[in-house]
Amino acid sequence: MSKLAGKNILITGASQGLGREMALRFAKEGGGGLSIVARHADQLNKVRDEVRGVTPKIDIVAIEADVSSSRDIERIVATTLAQFKGRLDVLVNNASTIGPSPMPNLLDYPVEDFREVLDTNLIGPFVLIKNALPAMIERGGSIINVTSDAGQVGYPGWGAYGISKFGLEGMSQTWASELEETNVRVNWVDPGNMNTAMHRAAEPEEDATEWANPADVTDIFVFLASDESKDVTGKRFQAQGDWKAQIHHEEHEGDKI
Amino acid sequence: MAFTFSLPPELSAKEPPERRGIRRDQVRLLVIDRATGEIEHSRFDKIDNYLRANDLLVFNSSRTLPASLRGCDCSAAHGPCMEVRLAEHLPDDSWLALLLCEQGDPFGCGLRPEMQIQFAEGLNATVLQRDERIPRLWKLRFSISGTQLVDLIYRYGKPIRYEYVSAPWNLDYYQTVYATEPGSAEMPSAGRAFTWKLLLDLKRRGVDTAYIVLHTGLSSYMDDELDAQHPASEEEYFVSATTAEKINRARENGGRVIAVGTTVVRALESVVDQNGRVQGAHDYTQLKVDNQHRFKAVDGLLTGLHEPEASHLDLLSAFLPPDKIRAAYEEAIARKYLWHEFGDLNLIL
């Protein structure tokens, strides 16, 4: 049985890096419908064609949009729900921006850039969740927010990006507790260091070959998108950590994890 | 229906409640008891006082389209520009739309079959013919269809706005919190006051919820004579098996089925059999609900305050005798209730 059979999944930031790998992996795992979103249509349409190559029968829609715009988000959700007849099972808030590169310290951070980063990385996921929830709340669903270790530690130089991820983690906790009595679960995942264009731009001095390939960190996302995680909500996971042990341990603590 | 009334212009809600200093669930609620005709004045966030465990609220989860598009006739040099208000998506994938000329007489700029309307890059439509039933509407076919068309409508469209609304409010003011599938020309506004907090509170108290989809058409054709006739339209609806089951269960358990909006009344009364059993269906309805109608699926109604034209009040007369409606509406006017999509609500139970 495919893990994601019949699931309709919306992924933002799907034209490259982790988002692209998730789209390919979800299709392989039997996802019924995929709505992929990114700012650049050319790259995004390439991913759509790649996914179709993997799973020709998949119901896929590619939406060129910017998650920093509430108007675009309304369009993303409407178009997705038109495609999937009102049903959505999984939302992955993956799109994010690091802001100016090289990243300035906060002291030198242009206010306009700061706002832009928060719009994409924090306000965008808030508006997306708000708009997508009605399609999930009756039948249940999974919301997965992609965070970073910069969302837990205030590294110098990671300014707006880190602050947006601190916010995203806090917001995820709030959503999870507000939605506790529904069947919608909210979890957030730190994928760890990955060899992606965004990470290379953030740390051009570092050796990117030491970082994981984004294709190798998608297991946790499949788990959280599938019914295997139906009792898991309000949790932070590290894709490159021992998340299986974390789940096992917490299951044995006897709590709803 | 035996009466009409005149609606003072100041009783049209000009802005969303959130923009006149109250929450969306703090609009006023006029409660009418069907059995006694007794009237109570309350506030929407106290609706739980009138509901009980096993009651079922049935909502229309259709999402509002930004159904007003601006386009110009590109089949003639310097062709006129117009507002195109989408009214209905037809089974053959064409659309019915109201075309309103930008300059001068709204219908006087040479609207005709075969006219080509250009909206934006990548979005055109061909005007096919006038609608026979509602002659202010034209049938048109867009250059693209399906999800791609939805995407472009959301990219270029704006919510339809009537003259009493004070500002071009963003589309999200025209959505209910539970809206999913896009397709309504205008907001199914009876459920606008619900918040998720209220919905979850009600659920905790045993009041269940279910959803249908019926994409609403236009409430006005910008033609007083035609609007007064209020021609009954044929509407597409979806009632899922899950919703049908919930309705049947609610009735078995002694709960009341409360339609949130007249669209829900129409859909549910179209899918109920002689014995009061509801079945899931996806179909079209022409059902007219008026004082001749005997309800089989629906026990109560949450709705806005209806317009003065007698035909708009017909549906209410299926719930209540005309004199009771008149008494309630006279009180609503005296107490300055607000009408229209951002206005106050009326619970008939």
Structural features, described:
- The complex is a heterodimer of chains A (257) and B (349).
- Chain A has helices spanning 17-28, 41-54, 70-83, 111-132, 159-178, 197-202, 219-225, 243-252; strands at residues 8-12, 33-38, 59-64, 90-93, 141-146, 184-190, 236-238.
- Chain A is an alpha/beta fold and 257 residues long.
- Chain A has one domain: NAD(P)-binding Rossmann-like Domain (Rossmann fold, 3-Layer(aba) Sandwich), CATH 3.40.50.
- A seven-stranded parallel beta sheet of chain A has the order 3-2-1-4-5-6-7, with helices on both faces.
- In chain A, strand 4 (90-93), helix 4 and strand 5 (141-146) form a beta-alpha-beta unit.
- Chain A is globular and about 45 Å long.
- Chain B has two domains: 9-64 and 168-348, 3-Layer(aba) Sandwich (QueA-like), CATH 3.40.1780; 69-156, Thrombin, subunit H (Beta Barrel), CATH 2.40.10.
- Chain B is globular, with a radius of gyration of 20 Å.
- The relative contact order of chain B is 0.21.
- The longest helix of chain B has 13 residues, at 322-334.
- In chain B, the strands form three sheets. Chain B has a nine-stranded mixed beta sheet with strand order 2-1-17-16-14-3-12-13-15.
- Chain B is of the alpha/beta class and 349 residues long.
- Chain B contains seven helices and 17 strands.
- The interface between A and B is medium-sized, with 20 and 26 residues.
Helices and strands of chain B, in order, run as EEEEEEEEEEHEHEHEHEHEEHHE
Calculate the mean pLDDT score of chain A and round it: 94
Largest interface by residue count?
A-B, 20 and 26 residues
Helical residue percent band of chain A: 40-55%
Proportion of helical residues of chain B: 10-25%
- The total strand number of chain A stands at 7
The average pLDDT value of chain B, as a whole number, equals 94
- Helix and strand run of chain A: EHEHEHEHEHEHHEH
At the fourth level of CATH, the homologous superfamily of chain A is: NAD(P)-binding Rossmann-like Domain
Strand order in the largest sheet of chain B = 2-1-17-16-14-3-12-13-15
For this structure, what is the CATH homologous superfamily of the largest domain in chain B? QueA-like
Q: Please tally the β strands of chain B and state the result.
A: 17
Give the structural class of chain B.
alpha/beta
Q: Class of the largest domain in chain B, according to the CATH hierarchy? A: Alpha Beta
List the uncertain runs of chain A: none
